[in-house]
Structure formats: structure tokens, C-alpha cells
Amino acid sequence: MTPADITREGLWQNNPALVQLLGLCPLLAVSNTLINGFVLGFLTLLVLISANCTISLLQRWLDDTTRLPAQILIIATFVTLADLLLQFVSFELHQRIGLFVALIVTNCVILGRAEAFARKNHFGYAFLDGLSMGLGFLFAITVLSSLREAIGYGTLLSSADLIFGPQAASWRVDLPNDGILLAILPPGAFLLFGLLIASKNWIDLKIEQRQALRNSETASG
Amino acid sequence: MIVTISKVVILAVVCGLLLSTTHVLSEDQIKQNQQAFELQQLQAIIGNQDISLTPNNDGYQLWKEGTGYGQLKLLQTRNGYNGAIRFWLATTLQGEIIGVRVIEHQETPGLGDKLELSVSNWILGFNGTTLATQTFDVKKYGGDFDQFSGATITPRAMVLAIAEELSQELSRESK
To answer: Which residues of A touch B4 (CB under 8 A)?
Structure first.
């Protein structure tokens, strides 16, 4: 795999949320507002990169028998660090999504990447894989939470001041629509997430069709 | 085997050290954040910067210019629609409500969550009320407080819980 492949896999082709359907618990639970979703996605990205790098560095040192507990130990350590970081930066936001920050440990994306990629690859590749998979997850949760906030509350970027400082309070955008309750409730999360996966597949299909068309043109021409 | 186990133990020790170091370094700031957050929440309930708070055994004592003014208590009711509703209630020594704020509940979003100030101003309707001047029930049951459209259980649980606390405080004062 080339670095370009790794990036494309994580961001799109093998997107952890949209294709592998991993980490759905935090994805669906926290994506009710853009700031909540973005912050959780960002913390997941940090944990994923750190865990991937550490596990890649320690790959020769760990035996097969103790590999899994050791990986979980490393992941749990970084999650606890991320939890402390959030309390340090914004205690109020921690009050809202703190429960799900701790649950990043159980996000299968992280152990999945450690097992499937980081422990078999060089440090640089493991870093790039963590970065792309993390960004892929961040992308999915950011899109989903923007949709849910926009449809469910009729706002965007509310409470941005909790993480970006007092001047960010004015970033809030009030949309003309009233909130539709369904989007904020758990079923709405599932419905919108389904639509998101469908759109991704539709885009892939269009790209494929265009490529097939181009191929047949070059063949006949 | 010994080597394998000791490797995991070493890893655990390193992870533990890393976490304790971070904890020690961030502890003060986090505690400060927490206190600032809590104080900000409590001050917002009282809505008056002249009133100071000192912790006592079941909440906070409120002081105005050095004399006792009232109390702030953390209460809960389980009569809501789903689980416990936890809220702060601030009252004067004369039994008048200064402010109420729900801090935790699992009522239905869109129906019962009008308890939250971020959703509706309903909770502010308690400000300035006393047992003597208001009937503590929702309008459907002949009281003075609004129910929510589609949800009566949640607001009624709050109103009745507050009424009970007020009457307890009154009987305590008169003793």
C-alpha cells in the first residue's frame, strides 16, 4: 500500500463510520449538535493517532499472547489522557459529552486499526493510517451532527464558545427552519446516518458509471 | 512466560506513571474549572451578585451583607416520567422562591424537557412565588402553574416536589 492508498482508504473507500460501520455508539449518541460531534470526533482522532503510533513502535516488543490486553491498556491510557484534556480545556463540555469520551475505549475503530494495521506496519504508515481513519471518522460525525443540529434545532455551531473561547459565542447560525424533534432523537440519528451511507454509495456509483463510460469511449475510439 | 508477563507489567507501570503525572499536572486547573463552573451555575440561579454562598451540610447558605438571606438546596423527585429529576432550589428565609434550576433529568426531549432553561422559560415561573400566594399544582389540577402541552407528569412532579420542600422549610422555621 502506498501512502496515497492509506489516505484514500481512511477518508473515503474504507471510511470507519460510513463503510466499516464501526464506532456507531458514540457516532449516533453524541452527534446531536455540531460542537458535541466535532469535539468527540477530534478526541477520537487524537486517540487513534497516538494509539496507532505507540502500538507500531512496540510491535516487536509485544508477544502474541499478551498483545490484546497490551493494546487495550495503551488505548485506555490515551483515552484517559483525552478525558483529562477535555476537562482541562472545557469543563462544561465535559459535563455534556464526558460519558462518551470515556467510551472511546470501546470504539472498535481504534482497536481495529491497532490489530489490522498498526502492529504490522512502520511508524510512519501507522501514523498516516491513524490520521486518515481518524479524519474519516471526524468527517462522518461532523456531517451527521451538522445535519442533526440544523434539522433538529434549526441552528448551527451553538455553544461554540465552550471550546473556542467567548468570542465564538457569536458563531452560532440561526437557520430559518424550526427544529424537527425527530432529528435529535435516537431514531433520527439512525435515519440520517442511513441516508448518509446511501449518499456515499450513490456518489461511488456515479463515479463508477462515469469511469465505465470513459473506458468504453476509449475502447471504441 | 515470566518475560511476557513482566513486559505487560512494565507497560502498565509506564501507562500508570504517565496518567498520574498528567493528573497531578492538570489537577489544580481542573478543580478550578469545576468550581468556577459550579459557582457560575449557582450564581445564575440566584441571579444576584450581591448574595454570597457558603456551603453547609445540605447545600449552601445564602448571605446578603453579612446576614442570613436564605438557602440553596439540591433536591430530587422521582415522580417524573422517567427517572429522577435533580434540581437546585433557592429560597429566602421567609419561604419565597429565589430560583429553581434543573440540573439532571431524563424526561422526553421535546415534551418534558421544557424543564431546562435552554429549552423554555417555564422554570423561571417559580421565581418570587410562595406557598401563601400560589396554589402549587399545574393548571389541569386547579393550580397556578402551566403544564406543558402533551406532558403533565413532568411539570406536576416538579411543582409538587417544590411545594413539599417549601412546606417542610416553613414548619422547620416555625419550630
So the answer is: 63, 65-66
> By the 8 A CB rule, do B103 and B127 touch?
no
Cβ of residue A80 closer than 8 Å to a chain B Cβ: yes
Closest in A73, A88, A92 to B11, CB measured: A73
Closest CA–CA distance from residue A218 to any residue of chain B (Å)? 57
**Around Cβ B168, how many Cβ atoms within 10 Å?**
10
Contact A73, B15 (CB under 8 A): yes
pLDDT, tens digit, 9 for 90 and up, residues B3-42: 888 988 999 999 999 999 999 999 999 999 988 888 888 8
How far does B104 lie from chain A, in Å, by closest CA? 11
Alpha-carbon distance of A127 to A111, in angstroms, equals 14
Is the minimum CB–CB distance between A74 and chain B shorter than 8 Å? yes
How high does pLDDT run on average in chain A?
Answer: 90
Spatial distance between the Cα atoms of B38 and B73, rounded to a whole number of angstroms: 13
Best mutation target, B9, B21, B27, B33, to test chain A (most A CBs within 10 A): B33
- The stretch B123-145 carries a mean pLDDT of 91
Which helix (H) or strand (E) element contains residue B170? helix B153-174
Residues of A in contact with B114 (CB under 8 A): none
Q: Scanning every residue of chain A, which has its alpha carbon at the shortest distance from the alpha carbon of B20?
A: A81
Contact residues, chain B, for A61 at CB < 8 Å: 7
Greatest Cα-to-Cα distance within chain A, rounded to the nearest angstrom: 64
What is the model's pTM? 0.77
Find all residues with CB under 8 Å of B14, minimum gap 6, and list them: none
ipTM tops the 0.85 cut: no
Residue B170: pLDDT above 70? yes
Site from A58, A77, A93, A94 to mutate, B interface, most B CB atoms within 10 angstroms? A77
Nearest-angstrom CA–CA distance, B153 and B159: 10
Sheet holding B51-56, edge to edge: B51-56, B59-64, B67-77, B85-92, B97-104
User: What 3-state class would DSSP assign to A171?
Assistant: helix
What is residue B175's predicted lDDT score, i.e. its pLDDT?
66
Q: How far apart are CA A161 and CA A140, in angstroms?
A: 23
